[in-house]
Design a protein that fits this description.
By secondary structure, this protein is an alpha/beta fold. The protein contains seven helices and 14 strands. Helix 4 links the parallel strand 8 and strand 9.
């Protein structure tokens, strides 16, 4: 990692969680600048970093030269608990958390090919109800009889299995409105997106808790989508085609590795709830001010130090704002036009919830910063 445009550069090594992070930085850079460089490399917010050199704590306002940090120096980074971004500190290769399975002795009865015996009564029930429920079934493949349900299918739930192949045949479920693929450990090539995005009536899609690193441009073809959950993956960006989802109301992208949001997010004019918490964001596009129906925005555990200038002025329905563990201060918020009206809405919502509290219950917490 290098800082461009610096004249007197030195190479140092930052020790963190068993890793050695090489960095080239100017002697005249301040310690706070070094912390900003380390943020995307460690997932630790600058205010949660303590840099120690030769037994001394380095001070944010001092330069490396003033701190007597020289070429080849080794600096130790200690992270304060609770100030991690994304999925916490980046250690070595990220590993998927295995899905726990109870009654493993019973599951051993599944044959080596992992095929589910055809249950004619079950298939008939699927066709009548339109709901195919196969969650937590220890499956490694989608049963063939699923495709026989065709256009009668309204919902497919294969979450929390071990399925690593969603074939093009999924397109034959042409009337499907809800599709839950979460918790299978899927990689990018496990989903036939052409087949999936041919489902023009699909309103709810969840691919959370998998191993996806990218989302394809075909996602924009899901023109009827109302809810999209891609949380808890390894995504580093969102496709610009997400702006084509003009009927999208709920977007959950939390717990990924996203460092920027495309400007076209402002075209998703129906968005009411957006969760971007636990990512690597340092700023939001100004087009967030175009989301006039936005009611809840979750931004905790990011490196943000400001919000789009028009967000309070234009987003007049916004009443929930989660800013825990960001760099945004009250002084920054009070300077934004429309802040007072937002604060009044937030307090009004808080009070309404308090009115329905049961006496003796736990202290109220709306899940947003106590601004």
């Amino acid at each position: 990692m290098e800082v461009e445009g610096q004249d007197t550069a030195i190479n140092i090594t930052v020790k963190f969680s068993g890793r050695s992070i090489p960095i080239s930085v100017s002697l005249d850079s301040k310690i706070k600048d070094l912390k900003s460089l380390l943020q995307p490399l460690t997932n630790v917010l600058p205010r949660g970093q303590k840099l120690i050199f030769k037994g001394k704590l380095l001070v944010d306002g001092m330069t490396l030269r003033e701190s007597e940090v020289t070429n080849g120096a080794k600096v130790m980074l200690m992270a304060s608990q609770g100030l991690h971004q994304g999925e916490g500190p980046i250690l070595k290769d990220a590993k998927t958390r295995p899905i726990s399975r109870a009654n493993t002795s019973i599951n051993k009865t599944v044959n080596e090919k992992f095929e589910v015996l055809i249950d004619k009564n079950r298939v008939e029930r699927w066709k009548v109800t339109g709901v195919i429920g196969l969650a937590d079934s220890n499956l490694k493949a989608i049963p063939e009889e699923v495709w026989a349900c065709g256009p009668s299918t309204r919902a497919l739930d294969i979450s929390n299995n071990f399925i690593l192949d969603v074939p093009a045949q999924i397109g034959c479920l042409s009337s499907m409105q809800k599709c839950l693929l979460n918790g299978n450990g899927m990689l990018d090539n496990c989903i036939n997106w052409k087949g999936l995005t041919s489902l023009k009536h699909l309103k709810v899609l969840s691919v959370s808790h998998n191993n996806l690193s990218t989302l394809p441009s075909e996602l924009g073809a899901l023109c009827s989508l109302r809810q999209l959950d891609v949380s808890n993956n390894k995504l580093s960006s969102l496709p610009v085609e997400i702006g084509l989802l003009t009927q999208l109301e709920v977007l959950k992208v939390n717990n990924n590795r996203i460092s920027n949001i495309p400007m076209c997010i402002g075209d998703c004019i129906s968005l009411a709830e957006v969760d971007l918490s636990s990512n690597l964001l340092t700023e939001l596009p100004v087009t967030f001010g175009d989301l006039l129906n936005l009611k809840a925005l979750h931004l905790s555990n990011n490196g943000l130090n400001s919000l789009p200038s028009t967000i309070f002025k234009m987003c007049l329905q916004l009443s929930t704002l989660d800013l825990h563990n960001t760099e945004i201060t009250m002084d920054v918020l009070r300077q934004l036009e429309g802040w007072q009206d937002f604060d009044d809405r937030r307090r009004s919502k808080h009070q309404k919830q308090l009115d329905f509290r049961v006496v003796g219950s736990a202290e109220f917490d709306e899940g947003a910063d106590k601004l």
